[in-house]
TrEMBL record:
<keyword id="KW-0540">Nuclease</keyword>
<dbReference type="InterPro" id="IPR051916">
    <property type="entry name" value="GPI-anchor_lipid_remodeler"/>
</dbReference>
<dbReference type="GO" id="GO:0004519">
    <property type="term" value="F:endonuclease activity"/>
</dbReference>
<feature type="domain" description="Endonuclease/exonuclease/phosphatase">
    <location>
        <begin position="5"/>
        <end position="227"/>
    </location>
</feature>
<keyword id="KW-0269">Exonuclease</keyword>
<dbReference type="GO" id="GO:0016020">
    <property type="term" value="C:membrane"/>
</dbReference>
<protein>
    <submittedName>
        <fullName>Endonuclease/exonuclease/phosphatase family metal-dependent hydrolase</fullName>
    </submittedName>
</protein>
<keyword id="KW-0255">Endonuclease</keyword>
<dbReference type="Pfam" id="PF03372">
    <property type="entry name" value="Exo_endo_phos"/>
</dbReference>
<keyword id="KW-0378">Hydrolase</keyword>
<dbReference type="GO" id="GO:0004527">
    <property type="term" value="F:exonuclease activity"/>
</dbReference>
<dbReference type="InterPro" id="IPR036691">
    <property type="entry name" value="Endo/exonu/phosph_ase_sf"/>
</dbReference>
<dbReference type="InterPro" id="IPR005135">
    <property type="entry name" value="Endo/exonuclease/phosphatase"/>
</dbReference>
<dbReference type="GO" id="GO:0006506">
    <property type="term" value="P:GPI anchor biosynthetic process"/>
</dbReference>
């Protein structure tokens, strides 16, 4: 059995040192074999993926997606305890908007893909194009696709992905909506005028055993991120 997880880490926004401590503690407790991270910043020689991995025994793969005016790079990362045998950074179609990327890593026996799709509410057509692009690149099976898809389960882009892959929350979650962007999280209610909904997913062609929400517990009213994470135990053929 292999445990995979995903988390949008929200860059260095908010009280990052306190958030980092919460993320690292839960990561140590959760102990996934592989975790995909989105909104991972790299700037002036410092990479959040390295800060998060620390001494927890993970290999790191990082794929830059966009660069801000101040030189800050934002991208996706994979932390894995399975050996990295191959990795690729694949730019996504974005129709002239902020660059997005797909990170592929062959982690031991498991092909792992991590992505972060366009966030704008009216960009469903672009996200659909990105979803088609991703499935065209996922030619190995079993595989897992982790990320922040910025779309709800009833959207055309997610409906398309669920035709190609198993949505592990729908298959093996606890029967609740599985919201990963929640106004119960102070970082959402304070900084975003947006409704509670599910935006983050674990898709797979393997067999999911159990899926659950992670990184949901605050300390002193500080949450690990503005998104909750997901974890899933998978059986491989």
């Amino acid at each position: 059995m292999i445990r995979v997880a995903t988390l949008n880490v929200w860059g260095r926004q908010g009280p990052w040192p306190s958030r980092l401590a919460l993320i690292r503690q839960e990561l140590a407790d959760l102990s996934p074999d592989v975790i995909g991270l989105q909104e991972v910043w790299r700037h002036e020689g410092r990479c959040q993926a390295e800060e998060i991995a620390g001494d927890l025994g993970y290999e790191i793969a990082y794929a830059p997606a966009s660069t801000a005016d101040d030189g800050r790079i934002q991208g996706n990362a994979i932390l894995t305890r399975l050996p990295i045998q191959e990795q690729h950074h694949i730019p996504l179609p974005v129709a002239g908007y902020e660059p997005r990327a797909l990170l592929y890593v062959q982690a031991g026996p498991l092909p792992v893909y991590v992505t972060h799709l366009n966030w704008q509410p009216d960009h469903s057509a672009i996200r659909q194009e990105q979803a088609h692009f991703i499935t065209a690149h996922m030619t190995s099976s079993p595989a897992v696709l982790l990320g922040d898809f910025n779309a709800t389960p009833d959207s055309p882009e997610i409906k398309y992905l669920t035709k190609a892959f198993t949505d592990t929350w729908t298959a093996t979650g606890d029967g609740t909506p599985g919201d990963t962007f929640s106004r119960e999280n102070a970082f959402v209610s304070q900084y975003a005028d947006e409704p509670t909904r599910r935006l983050d997913y674990i898709f797979t062609t393997a067999k999911p055993v159990r899926t659950w929400l992670t990184f949901t517990t605050p300390k002193n009213n500080i949450w690990p991120s503005d998104h909750y994470g997901l974890a899933c135990d998978l059986n491989l053929p």
